[in-house]
Amino acid sequence: MPKSKRDRAVTLSKTKKKGREHKENIVNSIREAVEQYNSIYVFSFENMRNLKFKQFREQLKSTSRFFLGSNKVMQVALGRSDSDEIRTGLHKVSKLLRGDAGLCVTNMSKEEAQRIFNEYEDYDFARTGSIATETVELKEGPLDQFTHEMEPFLRKQGMPVRLNKGVVELVGDFVVCEEGKPISPESSRILRLMDMKMATFKLNLICRWSPEDFELYQEGLEGSDIESA
């Protein structure tokens, strides 16, 4: 009997990791961009959504370039001290690339960049592990927002439901999520069915650099935070 193709071993050894060449390309791209654009911003992000960020970036492609990825690689590109920075003062920008952060190099005016970043926010469904922004509780009784075909799925999510004459009915009060607590996988699915969006995708400016000046936008970032580390 011929051997089933399903029984073939699959090797992952051919999977290529992003190595030195990839990092060098990023470093070179950032350094080229620094020479081509007027100013640089470090921004942080909350509840990143790749598609929404791609759309935001696309809107500004005529004036700006964005870089996300390894903070260490971006720091190397800019220079981590005054002895290896590629432009005067850029080591201050490098020190602020921490956590969920990115770079924006742009020809936008300072006022326009601040307005666009400060005004931008987009709502989306919360993912598993996100912190609930409010308590959602369903009361005992009919759930008219759900069709009868959804009853088995709702039961699998832990909801005490049954069908009563073709109507989904909750047989007891049920707390979907509690404010300030992590959202479970089941709660995430239920909130999506209820069309309740608890995640806000935001971009927050941290600092701005130009050949003429350097500005911090977030309170609590002291000079020692920049010059140390």
From TrEMBL:
Component of the ribosome assembly machinery. Nuclear paralog of the ribosomal protein P0, it binds pre-60S subunits at an early stage of assembly in the nucleolus, and is replaced by P0 in cytoplasmic pre-60S subunits and mature 80S ribosomes. One of its GO terms (cellular component) is nucleolus. Associates with the pre-60S ribosomal particle. The keyword RNA-binding does not apply. GO terms for biological process: nuclear-transcribed mRNA catabolic process; ribosomal large subunit assembly; ribosomal large subunit biogenesis; rRNA processing. It is found in: Cytoplasm; Nucleus, Nucleolus. Residues 126-195 form the Large ribosomal subunit protein uL10-like insertion domain. Belongs to the universal ribosomal protein uL10 family. This is Ribosome assembly factor mrt4. It holds the Pfam family Ribosomal_L10. Keywords: Cytoplasm, Nucleus, Ribonucleoprotein, Ribosomal protein, Ribosome biogenesis. Residues 1-22 are annotated as: Disordered.
